[in-house]
Amino acid sequence: MSARNWVEIDEARLVENYAQVRAAAGAETEVLAVVKANAYGHGLEQCAVVLARAGATWLGVGDAKEGARARRALGEAGAHILVMGGVMRGEVGAIAEHGLTPVVWTREQVEWLGAYPGMRVHVEIETGMGRQGVRPGAELKELLRAIADAGLELDGVCTHFASAEVVGSAKTREQRVRFAEAGGQVRELGLRPRWIHAGSSASIDIGADVDGSDGGWLVELAKSVGAQAMVRCGIALYGYCLAGVAEEGASGEPVAGVRHGELSSRIRAKLRPVMTWKTRVLDVREVQAGETIGYNATFTAKRAMRVALLPVGYADGLRRELSGMDNSLGGWVMARGADGVARRADIVGRVSMSMTSVDVTGIDGARVGDEVVLLGDGVTADDHARIAGTIPYEILCVAGKR
């Protein structure tokens, strides 16, 4: 039985995006490929295998369950797998069984993992994200001693920037200072982690924290403790990037008059979306001027129209904000007529739970059974996010979820 809507993943584009990221990061910086959240909706197992074959030596997952899935897909000789979301007590056995490397920041986590002496761990430093991590100073010193006492091996030290996509961010500058302080503590204690990592897709795109416009801050910090720099890259692998936001003003908002995407971008224009989300036309009907379409009659035809019905809706991840109303345009799909050329077909009426209507008046030959692109070339996650008032991460993670 065929699916009413489905997702296609372009392996070649994923490999090319990884190559673009790898080149931009520079020879002295390793790239950890993030496959958490089911590879941002792209399929964890499939993407993990493709990225490892493309040369990724580190993969990042959200929890031990995802780590186990990635390990089973890769086999024992696959890439290192970093569990970035910390450790819960019930996950410790799976982390050990599947050879995963956990990120830790509390004494409890260290005590639980102490049942497996020799296990490698990464310590996350709280530098201003305000979510997780151990603070530099007495807390960090105590945690590092606990790691040594538990017989665990300090393999890496990391932090997470709150405003990586903001060029010249004062917040990021403050976080760098705190992270450097933590590096100094590690050095003073005579510890030699293999990895120092921070940053994201946005950091690579604007050249921050790697070997770009700032002269390789992360590389220099890593060298100071005898380690190698690593940057964690997620959404750029899948064809998108949030880099290029202007420096914040005093209010913390982007500087007035400078639009998103106007500033430096090293890779964004070279990336191509990996995901194509498709459906098929369920029905085509003629709608007369004055007739309404969908729940609450929010769209009234101003002229005679041909309307295609698509068997997909918000239960599948197609955002309700994409609805087309009388007083505002919504989203669109890409449909093909008899000539085979993909054209924009606007959504008309409410996106409902399992059905969506689109205007195919200008697409000659559109018929039942035709493939329609919901997300991909011609209509991107950036487009959906802009209309829905969110970010492309959220769009990708829920696309085609049924």
The helix tally amounts to: 12
The level 1 CATH classification of the largest domain is Alpha Beta
What's the CATH architecture of the largest domain?
A: Alpha-Beta Barrel
Distance between the termini: 14 Å
Strand order of the largest sheet: 2-3-4-5-6-7-8-9
Give the proportion of residues in helices. 25-40%
Instruction: Note the quaternary state here.
Output: single chain
Number of strands: 18
List the domain count as a whole number.
2
Strand content: 15-25%
Biggest sheet overview: 8 strands, parallel, barrel
Order of helices and strands: EHEHHEHEHEHEHEHEHHEEEEEEEEEEHH
Give a summary of the structure in a few sentences:
This protein has 12 helices and 18 strands.
Written account of the structure:
The protein is α/β, with parallel strands linked by helices and 402 residues long. The chain folds into 2 domains: 11-270, Alpha-Beta Barrel (TIM Barrel); 275-398, Lyase, Ornithine Decarboxylase, Chain A, domain 1. Helix content is 29%, strand content 21%. It is built from 12 helices and 18 strands. It has an 8-stranded parallel barrel, surrounded by 5 helices. It has a 5-stranded antiparallel beta sheet with strand order 1-10-18-15-16, with no helix packed on it. A hairpin with a 5-residue loop joins strand 15 and strand 16. Helix 3 crosses helix 4 and helix 11 crosses helix 12. The longest helix has 19 residues, at 170-188. It is elongated, with a radius of gyration of 24 Å. The protein starts with a strand and ends with a helix. Mean pLDDT is 89; it is low at 211-215 and 246-263.
